[in-house]
UniProtKB/TrEMBL annotation:
PANTHER family: IMPORT ATP-BINDING PROTEIN, LIPOPROTEIN-RELEASING SYSTEM ATP-BINDING PROTEIN LOLD
TM annotation in the entry: none
SUPFAM superfamilies (alphabetical): P-loop containing nucleoside triphosphate hydrolases (SSF52540)
Xref: Pfam families: ABC_tran
Protein name as it appears in the record: Lipoprotein-releasing system ATP-binding protein LolD
Lineage per the UniProt record: Bacteria, Pseudomonadati, Pseudomonadota, Alphaproteobacteria, Rhodobacterales
Organism listed in the record: Roseovarius halotolerans
Length: 229
């Protein structure tokens, strides 16, 4: 894969955390990972192995001790916080195990807000939000607050919020881990449809090996490095 085709490229990424005096934990140790545009990759590893750390570094929420992070061929490793924030808002969408929707706002408003923060006009943001909600089957819930929606519905709204600014990279950390098996399957199908329909690259951390096997590729973390499954 050439660098022109790489939507995400992590090269030699290492990360160590200090946990008290003389207690260092190396979570990542020279990790390399490349995602192509339109590719869905599953990331599997036991709890505590560094999946969340890898996702946070890939999404510019955290910085590596060593190594580089490129998105769309641009090296964001050494940029300041402000430029990283702007890049993260425009290039990256995040989905977490728990939806983290704002409880005081409706489903539509939760998808509109990140667009307003990105400079999109309100009318345009509302139109895009309504379209996204309809595409994932919760258009009829647009005026409901999270407390009035099921867990699966809330996670679908979270997917829409992550894609509201048309990012080129989607990062998901156990996106169906808080759902029952039947709902998890339905929500995962929704996620796959969204990713395939938009052509963005997606890195999805999951414990569910059946879901992982349905992606283009499966990688795992082993002693701080990314290896093929």
């Amino acid at each position: 894969m050439s660098s022109d085709e790489a939507m995400l490229r992590l090269s030699g990424v290492s990360k160590t955390y200090n946990q008290g005096r003389e207690n260092e934990v190396q979570v990542l140790n020279g990790a390399d990972l490349t995602l192509a545009e339109g590719e869905m990759v599953a990331l599997v590893a036991p709890s505590g192995a560094g999946k969340s750390t890898l996702l946070h570094i890939a999404g510019l929420l955290d910085t590596p001790d060593t190594g580089t992070v490129e998105i769309g061929g641009v090296d964001y490793t050494g940029l300041g916080d402000r430029r990283r924030t702007v890049a993260r808002r425009r290039e990256v969408g995040f989905v977490y195990q728990f939806h983290h929707l704002l409880p005081e706002f409706t489903a539509l408003e939760n998808v509109v807000l990140p667009q307003l923060a990105n400079g999109i006009q309100k009318d345009e943001a509302e139109t895009r939000a309504a379209d996204l909600l309809a595409r994932v089957g919760v258009g009829g819930r647009a005026g409901h607050r999270p407390s009035a929606m099921s867990g699966g519905e809330q996670q679908r709204v979270a997917f829409c919020r992550a894609l509201a600014n048309a990012p080129r990279l989607l990062l998901a950390d156990e996106p169906t881990g808080n759902l029952d098996p039947a709902t998890s399957e339905q929500v995962f199908d929704t996620l796959v449809g969204l990713v395939r329909g938009t052509g963005l690259a997606a890195l999805i951390a999951t414990h569910n090996l059946e879901l992982a096997a349905r992606m283009d590729r499966v990688v795992r973390l082993d002693q701080g490095r990314v290896v093929a499954q």
